[in-house]
Design a protein that fits this description.
elongated, 259 residues, arylformamidase activity, 20% strand, 21% helix, alpha/beta, Cyclase family protein, two-stranded antiparallel ribbon, single chain, 5 helices, 9-stranded mixed beta sheet
């Protein structure tokens, strides 16, 4: 099998609206930290100098949001109430694992004119891919936005889906829709501009709001989709980290090709 990493990294050196704080304790600092923790919590006393080279294990402390880097949005991210099931949207730790391992379908939206792709653009992308989505497929949207990852432009210059386009994919039985952009919706500035000029609330983040009516997940901030050499005929694994009560979880998304 051939594995292609389609994840973006959690990188404290990259530009983020919510900055990442990454503090690294060296192996020597980790030894002192462990000695203090063992003494305080378990009553075990030892001198870090007795360890080989005075070192034990490094330790990373990271402060970030669950929407940093490649991540899976759970239904509870979209709102506090759902219009399906018992009315309570599920958190990321409650989602079925089988949703996040299945056939991939890559749809190319790089030629889309403007910040919003609708049904017509998706239909053309499906024609280019040579097939329609099937139940259980994980749809990947290549908008070209990952070229700007790590810069402010990544958060303002990308293509999102409108509501009907999302429902089209869900009508085909898709449960997981991924994008290389910051959001499955259009950029914030575009959304607000269209709302202020029209007064139409349906333009307010329709891709996310659709998740209040129908249960599905988004994978946002994918990367390296141009390394996929075919639009289908591969598997995707994108299991989210199990964070109790969270509306999202980081994921290491991978495309898997049988060779």
């Amino acid at each position: 099998m051939r594995f292609v990493d389609i994840s973006s990294a959690v990188d404290a050196a990259a530009w983020e609206p919510d900055p990442i704080e990454h503090v690294i304790l060296t192996p020597a600092q980790g030894a002192a930290h462990m000695a203090a923790e063992m003494r305080e919590h378990f009553g075990v006393d030892f001198d870090p100098a007795e360890l080989p080279d005075g070192e034990f294990l490094s330790l990373d402390r990271i402060t970030l949001t669950s929407h940093t880097g490649t991540h899976v949005d759970a239904p509870s991210h979209y709102g506090s109430r759902a219009l399906y099931g018992d009315g309570r949207p599920r958190d990321v730790h409650e989602l079925p694992l089988e949703w996040f391992y299945g056939p991939g379908l890559l749809l190319d939206l790089r030629s889309c004119d403007g910040p919003v792709a609708g049904v017509a653009e998706l239909e053309r992308a499906m024609d280019r891919a040579g097939r329609r989505p099937e139940p259980g497929d994980i749809v990947l949207l290549d908008t070209g936005a990952s070229a700007w990852a790590g810069t402010p432009r990544y958060f303002t210059d990308f293509t999102g889906l409108d509501g009907p386009a999302v429902h089209l994919l869900l009508d085909h039985g898709v449960r997981v829709i991924g994008t290389d952009a910051f959001s499955l919706d259009a950029p914030f500035g575009d959304v607000i501009s269209r709302y202020r000029s029209s007064g139409d609330r349906s333009v307010l983040w329709p891709a996310h709001v659709a998740g209040r009516n129908r249960e599905y997940c988004q994978i946002e901030r994918l990367a390296n989709l141009d390394a996929l050499d075919r639009p289908h005929g591969f598997l995707v694994a994108c299991f989210p980290v199990k964070i109790t009560g969270a509306g999202a979880g980081w994921a290491r998304a991978v495309a898997i090709f049988a060779e």
